[in-house]
Design goal:
heterodimer, A: two-stranded antiparallel sheet, two-stranded antiparallel sheet, 69% helix, flat, B: mainly alpha, MetI-like fold, 2 domains, 0% strand, globular
Amino acid sequence: MAQISTTNRVAGLRATPSLAERIDLPQRVVFAAAASMIFIVVLLLAFIAWQGVQLFVKDGVPIGQILSPTWQPDSTSPDTNFGLLPFIAGTVFVTAIALVISTPLSVGLALFLSEVAPHWARAIVQPALEIFVGIPSVVWGWLGITILVPFLSSTFHDDLVLSLPIVGDVFRVPGFLTGFSWLAGSLILSIMILPTITSVSFDAFRAVPQELRTGSLALGTTRWQTIRHLLIPSALTGVLTAVVLGMTRAAGEALAVQMVIGNSPSLPAAITQPVTTLTSQITLDMGNTVFGEPWQDALWTMSLVLLIISITSVVLVRLLNKRRMAS
Amino acid sequence: MTATASQAIGRPNGPKPSLRRGSSRGSILADRAATAVLWGTGVFVLLLLGSIIVHFALAAWGVVSPSFVLSDPSDSVLGGVLPVLWNSIYMLALTMLIAVPIGILGGIYMAEYAGDNALTSAIRFAEEAISSVPSIVVGLFGLILFVDEFHWGFTALGGALALTLFNLPLMTRLSEQALRAVPQEERTASLALGATKWQTIRHIIVPLAIPGLITGVILTAGRVFGEAAVLLFTSGIGTPPHYDFSNLDLTNPASPWSPFRPATTLSVYIYKLQSEGLGIYRNQIIDGAAAILISMVLIFNLGARFLGRVLTRRLTAA
């Protein structure tokens, strides 16, 4: 007995740690696992950047050309031109309309879950949202092809015209020809990013201290006044973060968009017309081009543009978070 | 509670408050309208999800059957999905085999070791950056690295590695959250008893975090199972041949057990069929395949909830 306690004391008070303690293998292993993500990012950036600049370096296409609206990548054609503007504009426009549709809906849903819903309703809607997140993008695309696209083309087939007696036509939106369109892409995306925007804004609303709500209600305001004048302003940076995250998802989504958007490589003309995006064109053309030919190099340049968009949004989210921490 | 308070205050014939705004008729109407609209968003989401599930249940009726699940693909007759479903499960297992250990270990570092320093914030930045990279770009990265640089061609292993690096941030973050949820007292008590940091982690913290860790694994699995864009250019898009499951030679690309063979998954097969399928049964096959995908997603989701709840109850009751 006495002996045991002595050895224990000796072990406990030993001045120099054992070799195993000094190296601390477990710490190194878990560190390597976490740090592997840095390695992955660096590798990914390096490879995509290297491939992405080949269009300019190897094929000698002037950088300015990617901002032209003409996409003529076929090397057998006499006037090849690698204008990426239709794709960049398509991505921006399709994403923008998706955000316009999805943001009010998602923020409303977040407010519902955070401020209005009784416990039982939240217990139903939150799992439902998680299932939405899990629905694969090809399934959304297929729903788009089989339900949304036919609906659009049969319901809004005629031109939408607003005309006044004397002035004449104020504006005219051409009807859907096939239904494969900018709007179809935006609608599918708006549902796909709904869970992202909802859950991040929900967290932002929950982070507003309960005392502020009680204080506001005690002053005699209605719940809606509290939401409008207190909650939304206090949670604004959080909601903006949510919108940026939704935007990133929308801009990067490939298959669902490609399936419903019509893939017409020209500048977006009307919301009812086919357009194309960076992701759709990459998806469509990558398998049909030969490694190293300018056409494929242009696709790599597109993926570099996508990568720049997503890294920018990560930085943006960080800045927003910093602002939220500061306030 | 707040709801009843606001109703009591907002009632027009209640005690009249002298405060601004509060009880004007317009603001009460606005409040009612807003409440109705906010309820509407919740109802909308439920209706949408409900109708999607009903739609696929109806569409799959008469298509999904044991023979659909167990026969080889074809769209000129009502072909089945056996090899692509097998590939989905195979890829899921292979991916999780790589991603789960790395993700949990990384989560341990982030929850237990990471200090407030530049290195930690670099890891966090990397985590956020990978999560935000479009899946198609991750697929292209896999194409250039595994397919071209390593000369593997389209392989299940290349696809699984691309899926791993795409889902590693999610797995790491969910693990970190699960570990952080373990109360601080458990750590203090264990360390006070003389356990080393690693002993504390291994014997106290990780066991306590198991419900959360399992939820994380299942949520990640759900995302891996449905992913297609990452796989188009890494594990391939060709219609698989007839699989001979008795061929257990892992190095033989003809064996369905081998990681060194192209592996078109269920999601990729749906994408391929809708873009190039010409057979008259195309739509029915896609509906059936999509119904299987959706059911798997439901199973993963409900499974994660159920298992998490059961394990938490068992561990906290003990």
